[in-house]
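Translate structure to sequence.
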């Protein structure tokens, strides 16, 4: 059996290990790691960090993904396991990050403050973020709002993962392709926008109280099950400077301009 290749990694203060049979697979695994991951080769692997291994299956073509000593998935093809690895790594880091709360949300900056768009996968976060960037906003994230204890949002400016209409497949799009730029500084949040695409939806925002906004965001927050008090405190701190609204929306371009216009007019529409 070939000797495993290993990396010791750290992201947001969380250590983990990557292991593979080949350098090629290990390099693909590293591309799946959370944005900003620091890495160095180690021998032997440190014992106190969670280990993620992507190995060739014994006696058959294909691969198996193991977390610790448990095989969690097998597949004849590598890409599906890399996709799962990316999700598992992100959840692991988000759960154990000592001083960050991760919220499933798109984020842009407008006039020096952050707009946070909480939502699940397939809610249309990335599409709306892309249109907000095209309209002049600064890109912060299309998937996670990364919050510190003061309620400020930090950039997680990976490439946008754009889906073609009606397809689950994603295409990576750099912010420069949208004629936009990525933010670099943590920002206070001015608006939290709960919105989801509906084919017949239209932009009619209604106010949401700070308390209800926190409760709604708990559904999208990591690590709410491990540290509920810390998550609630962080979200409440964020809402000290933020106004929350809720609305269905139609096409993302119209929604983006409606949102920015409302903010420009001192929230007259919200």
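Result:
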């Amino acid at each position: 059996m070939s000797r495993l290749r290993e990396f010791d990694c750290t992201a947001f203060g969380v250590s983990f290990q990557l292991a593979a049979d080949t350098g090629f697979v290990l390099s693909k695994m590293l591309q799946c790691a959370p944005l900003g991951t620091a890495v160095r080769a180690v021998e032997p692997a440190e014992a106190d960090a969670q280990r993620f291994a992507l190995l060739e299956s014994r006696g058959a073509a294909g691969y198996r993904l193991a977390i610790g000593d448990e095989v969690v998935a097998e597949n004849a093809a590598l890409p599906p396991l890399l996709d799962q690895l990316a999700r598992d790594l992100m959840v692991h880091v988000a759960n154990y990050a000592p001083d960050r709360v991760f919220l499933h949300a798109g984020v842009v900056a407008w006039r020096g403050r952050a707009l946070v768009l909480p939502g699940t996968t397939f809610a249309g976060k990335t599409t709306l973020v892309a249109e907000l960037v095209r309209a002049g906003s600064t890109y912060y994230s299309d998937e996670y709002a990364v919050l510190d204890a003061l309620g400020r949002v930090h950039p997680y400016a990976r490439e946008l993962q754009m889906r073609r209409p009606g397809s689950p497949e994603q295409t990576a799009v750099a912010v420069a392709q949208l004629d936009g730029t990525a933010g670099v500084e943590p920002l206070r949040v001015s608006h939290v926008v709960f919105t989801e695409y509906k084919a017949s939806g239209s932009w009619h925002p209604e106010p949401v109280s700070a308390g209800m906004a926190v409760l709604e965001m708990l559904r999208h927050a990591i690590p709410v099950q491990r540290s509920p008090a810390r998550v609630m405190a962080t979200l409440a701190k964020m809402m000290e400077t933020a106004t929350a609204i809720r609305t269905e929306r139609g096409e993302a371009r119209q929604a983006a301009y409606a949102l920015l216009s409302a903010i420009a007019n001192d929230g007259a529409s919200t």
